[in-house]
Amino acid sequence: MNEEVAILENVSPGQFRHYNKGFQETIFQGLLTDHLWGMQMVEVMRPDFFEVKYLIFLCEIYFSYFTKYKCFPTQSLLINIIKESLSEDHDLILRDQIVDYLLRMRGNPRPNDLAYVKDKTLDFCKRQAFKEALEKSVELISEDNFDSVLSLMKKAVSIGIPNTIGHDFFEDMEARFTRVSRAVCPTGIPELDQKDILNGGLGRGEIGVVTANTGVGKSHWLVAMGANAMRAGKNVVHYTFELTEQAVGLRYDSNLCNISASDVIDRKKTVEKFYSSEETKGLGKLIIKEYPTGAASITTLRSHIEKLALRNFKPSVIIIDYADIMRSTRAYDSLRHELKLIYEELRNMAMELRVPVWTASQANRESANSDIVGLENMSEAYGKAMVADLVISISRKAMEKSTGYGRLFIAKNRAGRDGILFPIHIDTSLSKIKIVEEDSQTLKEAVTADEGEIKKQLRKKWKEVNGLGK
User: Fold this and answer.
1) What does the pLDDT look like over 428-457, one tens digit per residue?
2) How many CB atoms lie within 10 A of CB 98?
3) What is the pLDDT of residues 52-72, one digit of tens each?
C-alpha cells in the first residue's frame, strides 16, 4: 500500500507541464475563432483544465453561454459579458490579465501553431484529467477507498467521449428559439437573396454550385458572384483553371465598370478613373490566381490562402472555376469517386475557413437540349450534389443563345425553397446575369406550360433584343 502511495507522490509536476501557458492560450483562441471545433471541444473540455486563472474565467463564461443558447457569442458580445461579469471590486490583476491576453490575441489573429494546438488539444484534456485523478487518488488510497479511485480513473479514461446526451426537446426549448446570426455573402440578385430562398445569400462554410452545359455561362456566373460580392465590400479570391488571370480580370473590369469586354482594353483610362472614384471606395479586394487544368488540389488552394494570410488578406468568399477539373488528393479508379472527394475536401475547407465557396460543375450531354437541368444532369458524380448546400442550374438551347435568354433552376437549396424556375438574361459581354421577370415558376408549372406560348415569348424577346419591333 505504502509503495503505491509513494509511486503516486513521486510523480513529478513537470511531467504535466508539456502543455504550457502559451499552448493553453492558443487553445482558447481556437475556441473563439473556430466555432465548429469549439462545439466538439465543449464535449470533452472543462474550464478547470486550464492552469491560469484568466483562461479558466474566460472559458467558464464562453461555455456557459453555449450551454444556455447552444451557440457561441461573438467576440464583441463576449467582451460585453466579461465587462458585466467583472465588478468594480473584482480582482484587478485578473482584469489586467484578461485585457492583456485579448489585446495580444487581437494582434495575432492567426497564430502559426493553431493547427498543431487543435490537433493536440484532446491529448491535453486527457493529461489534465489524469493529473487530477492521480492527485486525488493519493488521498483516497491512503484512506483505503479503492472503489472511488477506480471511479476516478474510469472518468479520466472517458475523456474524449461526448458528455452530453444531445438536445432534450422539451428541456432545451429556449435554444431552438434563439436567433442565430447567419453571416452571408449576397449573390446580388434580389430574387435569389430574398428571405424564403437564400435568406441573404450563400452562408459561411456553404458550397454553392452552378451547373450547366459547355458554353452556357458557368464562368460568367462565377464572375458575377465575385463582382457582386465585391460591391458588398467582400474580399474575393478567384481561382481559374482554364482562363488566364488577365482574361478573368478583364471580365471583372467589364462587370464592375459596365463596359463591354470587347471595349475594356481600349478604354483603360475610363476604367482607371472609375476605380479611383468615390463610388468604388466600398469595393472589396480581389485576388485572381491561375493554375493549370488538373494541377491544383485542395492542398494547393490551402497553401495559397495561407500565403495571403501573411499579407493580411482574408477572403470573404472563394470562387473556383471550376472544381470538376481540380486534382484530388487521393487517386481512384473511378472518376466519380474522385470528384466526390474533391467536393468533400472543398466543403471541409469552407467550414474550416468559415467562408462561402462558389464553384461550377459540368452538366452531361443529355442536358444540352433540356429545358431544365436537374441534379440528375450533373456530370459523372451525383455525389457532388449531396455535398453541396446550393445547386443552381442554367439552361439555354442553341436558338436562345443569340438572344441571351435562358432559365435558372434552383435544384437544391438547404437555406430555403428549391424547385423554382426563373427566366434569366445573360449578358456575356458584361458577365452579368439578371432575372427578367419577378414571377417565378415551380418545376410543375414549367413542365405543364404550353410549349407554343413559350416559343412565342422567346420570339418576342429575340425581336426586342435585335431591335425588330414587336
Assistant:
1) 999 999 998 755 555 555 555 545 555 566
2) 19
3) 999 999 999 999 988 887 788
